[in-house]
Amino acid sequence: MLGKNHEAYEKNYYKKGSFLKELLHRFADDEVAGLSAGLAYFFLLSLFPFLIFLITLIGYLPLSQDAVLGVIRQYAPGESSQLIESNLAQILNHHNGGLLSFGIIATLWSASNGINAIVRSFNRAYEVEESRSFIVARGMAILLTVAMVFVILVALLLPVFGKEIGLFIFSTFGLSEQFLTAWNTARWLVSGIILFIVFTSLYFVAPNKRLHIKDCLAGSIFATVGWIAVSLAFSYYVSSFGNYTATYGSLGGIIVLMIWFYISGMVIMLGGELNALLYKRKVAK
Questions:
Q1: CB of 54 within 8 A of CB of 66?
Q2: For this UniProt entry, which segments traverse the membrane (predicted)?
Q3: CB atoms within 10 A of CB 160
């Protein structure tokens, strides 16, 4: 009887409650801030193995090292991108044949730990327990990591091949130069589309809950737009106002990087909370 009363109360609460108020309530109750800090740690742990893997892999692809670093410079705060580039150059100076193998193993293990942290937070958002076995959960985390690596590679390759495709269409159909300008602009929108695909896949697969793709779209849009906006705004703040080097010395770049990862983790988890809240309200109708 008590269970039925609680269920009825919950349905009525999700029907009538203020959406923003409930989202803020869930933010506090589900400890999004604390979980984002843990996620930032896993991001940092997997960053350099992931970059080692990418930089080593581009030796077999029609890409330059600068193309990979260019993506980082596009969003990362100035001090962080300098830190990443200098440390990566130092690592690559000691290049050896096993670097790619190490990068793959370290990336898969470290990044899958980060995915596991996201899975736990999403399960909390949907109020479900993790019933999948360790092997299934870890396998899913590794598959998601591999998928993200593939998607990022596509995002890097498209600007290279996109230019060639645009020139081919331009010359074949005798289009105006305005087409090339529009095409070049559109090519750089690919990064946003790629992010949207990654977030949608993450929100769909990670929770231990049977969902439809449409149940994940709102959070994916929020996370895509939010992450790009927050990253660019934070980068502007760091370059224009924030002088972390004066406060933290040589650790300034690491502090900025950790704050960026922390904010990124919070945006990702908020997207999951948004999806979970919308799902609860849909079920309560």
A1: no
A2: 39-61, 99-119, 140-161, 186-205, 217-238, 250-272
A3: 14
Distance from the first to the final alpha carbon of the chain: 21
The structure tokens listed for 64 are 């330059």
Tell me the pTM: 0.72
- Residue 31 confidence class, pLDDT cut points 50, 70, 90: confident
Label residue 63 left, alpha or beta by phi (over 0 means left) and psi (-120 to 50 means alpha).
beta
CB-CB contact of 220 with 193 (8 Å)? no
In Å, how far from its chain's centre is CA 236? 20
Q: Are 119 and 137 in contact (CB under 8 A)?
A: yes
Other beta carbons within 10 Å of 32: 22
For residue 2, the model assigns a pLDDT of 41
According to the model, what pLDDT value does residue 6 have?
A: 47
Rg (CA), the chain: 21
> 114 and 261 in contact (C-beta within 8 Å)?
no
User: Which residue is listed with tokens 């892999």?
Assistant: 57
pLDDT for position 258: 84
